[in-house]
Amino acid sequence: MSLLSHYSYGAMVFLLMAGLYIVIGRGNLVKKLVGLGILQTSVYLLYLAPGKIVGGTAPIVSEDFSLYSNPLPHVLILTAIVVGVATLALGLALVVRIREAYGTIEEDDILGCDRQSEAEEPSP
Amino acid sequence: MRGDMVLRVIVKLLIPFILLFALYVQFHGDFGPGGGFQAGTIFAAALALYTMIFGLENMRRIVPDRLVEAMIAAGVLLFLGVGIAGLLLGGNFLDYFVLDRDPVAGQHRGIFWVELGVAITVFGVMLKLFCLFAARNLGQE
Amino acid sequence: MNAAEHLPALQVVLPLAAAPLAVLIRHRLTAFLLVLAAIWSAFAISVLLWLQVGDSGPISYAIGNWPPPWGIEYRVDALTALVLMLVSGVAAVVLPYSRASIEHEIASDLHYLFYAMFALCVAGLLGIAITGDAFNLFVFLEISSLSSYVLIALGRDRRALVASYQYLLMGTIGASFIVIGVGLLYLETGTLNMMGMAIRLQGLTGDRAVLAALAFLTVGISLKLALFPLHQWLPNAYAYAPSAVSAFLAATATKVSVYALLRFYFSIFGETAIFQRLPMADFMLLLALAGMFLASTVAIFQQDLKRLFAYSSVAQIGYIVLGISFDSVTGVTATLVHMVNHAVTKGAIFLLLGGVMLSLGGITLTRVQGMGRSMPLTSFGIVLCGLSLIGVPGTAGFVSKWYLILAALEHGQYWLVGAILSSSLLAVVYVWRFVEVAYFRAPLPGDEVRREAPLSMLIPAGLLVVATIWFGFDTSLTVGIASDAAQELVRSGR
């Protein structure tokens, strides 16, 4: 139970925090999505690492092997990857539309645009 | 790109092998790593490669937009259809055991159709994503 | 095949199948009718399931005939039945409304995609409520979230795109946290089945991985729930989405997250683990109070009516969470009753605002002045629902606040009664702002003529307004199911 034997959790936490930091700290909408992708990768790692069993083979039943890796995490994470792909595609599609509507993908500029157009709205 | 002979020839050589590999991944999914999701992605990758060299117009001639959209829906419906077939044959939803007299053969049959549905949908979605992003702004800039 | 046995699967499969069929058909009217048929049958199924649960207790359904813990289990108990009826009922009312409403808000060649997305969103929300598998819950959560991001982005204003993008970021972070929590629980217990988890977690209270899982799940669900201070995505998302989408999401999306929170807290972790060994009750009480007061205060200063009522939603979520923090049958009953009542009330308000948007072309307070004369029915409906938000006797809001106060008294926290009453006063202020503008100011030039929204929009909205009043007088349905569900939940942890 040494710290070293848990290095995959360390990597997972690092990816999680790095992703979260990019999402919060960057103003560029595409960079935020990159951060989101990294954050989701940490989830994949959390599930996949414990599924590996030392000396285990791919879980296809055969008489030559008795030790198999746990296939369930892989199935779950395949689903999570699909969800991640869908999220990323939708996010990028939104960024494309935002770029067409605002002419920029910097968060501050977009907020500025909104404030400007709100100020220009006729106020009776 | 159009004039680049080397790329065009190499891509034409590569694409059949990519498609074949996709089919292998699809049909060997029962016995080894692979399955509909991976196969659909590889299939879409072949067409993406084709599009990059030969242009969106040519790709649309091979796979019209309508067809891609229909495939997205049809794959999901095939999946649900297998589930409902299980219901109609007296089992639970997505019950593969009842699809054949021999439960193991039933599992094989169920997974085969489900994976086919997944492959069709994933192929459609991946290609649609690629096309939509590629076609965006073509007219404007 | 015996259809009654397979209702749990059909509950989700029908709307889920309607979505690709609508895409395949591509025809506006046919797609609408198809999705309508699927959603109305889903509502009928949810009522049948509720009756079945009442007769014979919780139903378990093994997908693919793989018994739990190997396969995914669908599990229907009183709480699930309540949420299923709420979601499918609101969807059944909003969908007919959306037909006239999106005519003016969404390009007509996209209508079939709107219906497909709506069906997917309903399927996802129903799936969250019905599944007994923790990972499956995440998958359905993402199905409903992704489709709701699309639905929000369909709004006419370009700010809808940014609102949807922000919701996508926050929602995905929330969902990732939920799946990390589920992953830690899976590593601890070796199962994803909720019932199995609950059994194996009993001996593990205080374990550090379980605590981490609890923390991730709490933050993740709170993000989806828009619990103060994680609510920033909500006001813009509701304000700029198409009217029908605002109404549907306001009524259901956050409520299903309340369900997820209750399910994880009471059914999986067990209340002793959460409320007796950890200071979760105080923590939730604090956030609930902060939400009730601060969000209501912010609502008072809004110029846009949709934003005003969106902030009011954040405040109402405070009341909902307040009920959970009491950790008693009465408290959870109050939570569930308020969940239903607020869903009905807010759904009605957003449907009516959609009508205003259509007739007057805007919903800022300056635009709607004198609305009481040009749109008397709509204004009256909004005022009635406003009274319910305040909690005036005779409306649904009163019933839920009454149960909250009962729970506070039962718990011996007399000062909370004062807090609930004084935060209701804030609701009086923001509802009064609408009343003042709508009834005591002269209409803008050109607004003097009477012009209500079309009947196809007024009738669904009217149905929900009537329900708001109905649940204020006849509480046997809402309180009856809610207290059954609350007893089941609070007992299951003991």
- Give the neighbour order of strands across the main sheet of chain C: 1-2
Mean pLDDT of chain C: 88
Low confidence ranges of chain B = none
Largest interface: A-C, 32 and 29 residues
Descriptive labels:
heterotrimer; B: 141 residues; mainly alpha; elongated; C: 494 residues; 2% strand
Question: What can you tell me about this protein's structure?
Answer:
The complex is a heterotrimer of chains A (124), B (141) and C (494). Chain A has 124 residues and is mainly α. Chain A has a single domain, classed as Helix Hairpins (Orthogonal Bundle), CATH 1.10.287. Helices cover 70% and strands 0% of the residues of chain A. Chain A contains 4 helices and no strands. Chain A is elongated, with a radius of gyration of 22 Å. Chain B is mostly helical. Chain B has one domain (5-135). In chain B, helix 1 packs antiparallel against helix 2 (36-54). In chain B, 38% of the residues are buried. The model of chain B has no long low-confidence stretch (mean pLDDT 86). By secondary structure, chain C is an all-alpha fold. Chain C has helices at 7-25, 28-56, 78-103, 111-130, 134-153, 159-189, 194-201, 208-225, 233-240, 243-269, 271-276, 280-300, 305-325, 329-360, 371-374, 376-390, 396-410, 414-440, 455-473, 476-492; strands at residues 59-62, 73-76. In chain C, helix 1 runs antiparallel to helix 2 (28-56), helix 2 packs antiparallel against helix 3 (78-103) and helix 3 runs antiparallel to helix 4 (111-130). The chains are: A mainly alpha (124), B mainly alpha (141), C mainly alpha (494).
Please render the helix and strand layout as text:
The complex is a heterotrimer of chains A (124), B (141) and C (494).
Chain A lengths: L6 H19 L3 H23 L20 H31 L4 H14 L4
Helix pairs in contact in A: 1-2, 2-3
Chain B lengths: L4 H23 L8 H19 L1 H7 L2 H24 L14 H33 L6
Chain C lengths: L6 H19 L2 H29 L2 E4 L10 E4 L1 H26 L7 H20 L3 H20 L5 H31 L4 H8 L6 H18 L7 H8 L2 H27 L1 H6 L3 H21 L4 H21 L3 H32 L10 H4 L1 H15 L5 H15 L3 H27 L14 H19 L2 H17 L2
Antiparallel strand pairs in C: 1-2
Helix pairs in contact in C: 1-2, 1-4, 2-3, 2-4, 3-4, 3-10, 3-14, 3-19, 3-20, 4-5, 4-10, 5-6, 5-10, 6-7, 6-8, 6-9, 7-10, 8-10, 9-10, 9-13, 10-13, 10-14, 12-13, 12-18, 13-14, 13-18, 14-16, 14-17, 14-19, 14-20, 16-18, 16-19, 17-18, 17-19
